[in-house]
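B., you asked whether I could sanity-check this one before it goes into the benchmark set. Here's the sequence:
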Amino acid sequence: MGELTHLDESGQARMVDVGAKAETQRERPPPTRPDAAETLRLLRAGDLPKGDVLGAARIAGIMAANATHELIPCVIPCLLTAVAVEFDYDEDASPW
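And here's what the prediction gave me:
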């Protein structure tokens, strides 16, 4: 696997400048069903091809909490003192 441009030298998520990137046409491949047990194993080990997906999800959750008043109509902005995003692994849950 090549270098992941959305991760810095220490493996932390970062925004990538794509301003000079040429437009491309993309097509979605036919849907498939991933092996849930293998995906969970890779997730726990931090070995998914896109890197630390839980770290990216944690950042997205924190950003969403801070932007709640922008995302949900009629919500009054309030100052947050802390936001924590945690994950649980449910080995028995079916992905379907």
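One thing to flag: The first helix runs from residue 36 to 45. Otherwise nothing jumped out at me.
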